[in-house]
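Budget justification note: compute hours in this period were largely spent on complex prediction jobs such as the one shown. Inputs:
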Amino acid sequence: MQKKYLLAPGPTQVSPEVLLAMAQPVLHHRAPEFAKLFEQIRQDLKWFFQTQNDVLVLASTGTGGMEGSVTNFLSPGEKALVVNGGKFGERWMKICQAYGVKVEEIKVEWGHSVRPEQVEEALRKNPEIKAVFTQASESSTGVAHDIRAIAQIVRNNDDCLMVVDAVSAMGVFDIQTDHWGLDIVVTGSQKALALPPGLAFVSVSEKAWRRADKAKNSRFYFNFKKERDSQAKNQTAYTAAVSLIVGLDASLRMLKQEGLQNVFSRHRLLAHATREAMKGLGLQLFPKDSPSDALTAVVAPEGFDGQVIYRDLRVKYGVTAAGGQDHLKGKVFRIAHMGYTDVFDVIVGVAAVEMVLKGMGHSLKLGTGVGIAQEILLKK
Amino acid sequence: MQKKYLLAPGPTQVSPEVLLAMAQPVLHHRAPEFAKLFEQIRQDLKWFFQTQNDVLVLASTGTGGMEGSVTNFLSPGEKALVVNGGKFGERWMKICQAYGVKVEEIKVEWGHSVRPEQVEEALRKNPEIKAVFTQASESSTGVAHDIRAIAQIVRNNDDCLMVVDAVSAMGVFDIQTDHWGLDIVVTGSQKALALPPGLAFVSVSEKAWRRADKAKNSRFYFNFKKERDSQAKNQTAYTAAVSLIVGLDASLRMLKQEGLQNVFSRHRLLAHATREAMKGLGLQLFPKDSPSDALTAVVAPEGFDGQVIYRDLRVKYGVTAAGGQDHLKGKVFRIAHMGYTDVFDVIVGVAAVEMVLKGMGHSLKLGTGVGIAQEILLKK
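Corresponding output:
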């Protein structure tokens, strides 16, 4: 017998309340009971996104929402600026390229945040750029980009949209969609919303909707205007992923009860405790600039393989975290602290890392990181 | 207090076994436990589709699978033949048009099946046609098309793919993917597989994969070759809809235990009982040709509004069936008998229809249809 602990940067843990809500008999997506539920959810998503814009619900994972954020707003041959500082920055590039959108790339070394001046300069040099694509939190590196500062630059340009992949950011830290002027913001169900994967959410500004009228890329399943018109009537254009939507309602209720600022504070505290614990163990954090409060990417100590740390966490202790992606494979391991996570998820994660490293021959003193985390978590 | 009965043509009822499986803590889609589960599922889906072809699992509803069945195999400017005999035939047309594929349409009057000779003639007149798109079961009309006969015509043409929307057919009645030579077959989770909506499945033949190498339409989220290569390693290309996939495993186990031929016999019997009960009540079935065993579309009797029948079933008796779509709105109502349905789902449906019609002033004798259904269902 071995208990399991899910501390991966998505999917994240799902609360018993949400699991039970989803275990109810299936609703029909064209029945009034569903419409009533969906109306409430539409309101709650605006609250969650801090916006008055439409927030579309899509039956796909976050990548589908990202694809639609390209195809609905850009035509083949138009130019986009992509901030590429990790696996998900690369994904924006690949989607643009798959749909004939020319890409001006800001290559950011993995582990760093983009400097807003880089965006400013790229826009000045390429006034034909129609949209800026970036991550709020880059899950592959554990780094946050300064969305507020970038948006301030982009919004000066009447003809350029600010598009944010906030998949591992929305509901983790403050993303002020309307106040900062974010045109398109994408998130997914399996991060801070603490649902299973299978839903994407996209908020779309008026400025972006005007662009959508002219965008010539092909789209059907991810036709945002069609979804907007259906969802205004509390229906989805195609069959809704009803069980996940019922779970979403339960999740949003829990988040509303906690309050958005408290949700952010909780994530900030858990992230801070994790980072300080790792540093206290003599480990180095991978992010060189702003670390994301969603997850902590830790450099595997000299002579220790990050993939073995990741594997031992899972096999020996039932803790599913994550390894490194692409060229970071073996070099880092990643522990998430977002969604349905609390004080003792951090304690479990830190304790397990200590025990795994000890088992691999590291000289650390057991309990060091845990003690540091406890000290910080006492403040909750 | 009013108990609810879901008898809609999708989503269909989900068994307690599957609901409980999905209520388990979330698995991580990159962990070995998931890979092991997914390997089993890939085998079971081949059994379910009666094929040795790859069967891809997508995080979307059936429409996403349909879109990918166009974009991965056809280039803009190429020509497709679409059998359009209802709402879902229309959807094939709209998807093709959205992606620049020219459509040769066989317009089939709603309620009728396409005659295979019509396909033969269209292919003779338009030898440049690269794919034939059709439904196995058209949910909007309750009609089945003769896929076997159509496929026999199409497979004579080396350069033409046979593409079947089997969303409300696969697992309801016999669809022999390999034996009949079906190149691309699409289904969804919320029909005979008796899961919540959110997964699409697509089987792809070798002939179709060869075509995919040349197809120039844009695709990213629904990039089938990328999915094939990932899924061969028991991973999905992007995040998997893990809770639905865990439910899928439970559902496939139940279907395997029952046996495919028994699954088909059960659906045949339930459909037969429903149809005979309706006829025994003096009601007319909407299908003029082969009715589908997935659902029964019934013409609302003279002077009775089909939408009121649909509404009263739900509001007075908690039975969610379906009304008519588009020009059939008010003219028909539809009761499904697919997926996790058995003898007493039919009895409930027929009894509720009798009680609703009686309440609306119809002169039928209560119990007439129920008795006829019982007589037939005794054979189970």
